[in-house]
Amino acid sequence: MLSNKSIFSDSQGNTIRLSSVLQAEQQVHFQNFSVKYVVSGNEKYSLNNRKIAVKQGEYGIGNKNISSSVLIDSSTLVKGICIDIAKEISTEIIDYKHHNSNPFSIFLFEQEWMVQKFTSNNTSLGCTLLQLSNAFENLTGANDVPAFSNAFKQQFGVSPKQYKVN
């Protein structure tokens, strides 16, 4: 069983996808900056021939220069959240925080080895992913933009548009 549902996407390439999988072995396409978060279960990635196991509450990040695949073989559903962030959005955030963002942008978007694994409770991004995972069941039931917006607002206290502005 494979369920991969896009709950948000825009013309810049920003996407949020939710997955529920029992078994899968397939190529994974990282975008400019991608996050793969495991809500429940275990996922085994091969990233540039480096084996990385990502379990519940952990996430991996990478960029488009990564050759990757995932193996999932479970008797219970493995649930995940995949987020792709456009280079323009990431660069805007980096520019806001750093006056000379070019070296950091090159590191994030052009290095072939840009692969890392984190535990959700050790980073700001991880804490946000953990909050989003708490709404996973509500979000997987969202079949349209208004339903997603309502679930998002219920979880974070603001609409996705307000969240983006702030």
- The CATH class label is Mainly Beta
Radius of gyration from the CA trace? 16 Å
Strand segment tally:
8
Number of helices: 6
Termini separation: 38 Å
Arithmetic mean of pLDDT: 79
Structural class: alpha+beta
- What is CATH's topology name? Jelly Rolls
Task: Please give the CATH architecture.
Answer: Sandwich
Sketch the topology as an H/E string, one letter per element: EEEEEEEHHEHHHH
Global shape: globular
Q: Helix content range of the residues, please?
A: 25-40%
CATH superfamily: Jelly Rolls
What does the main sheet amount to? Answer: 8 strands, antiparallel
Query: How many separate domains make up the residues?
Result: 1
Provide the low-confidence segments as ranges: none
Instruction: Tell me the strand percentage band.
Output: 35-45%
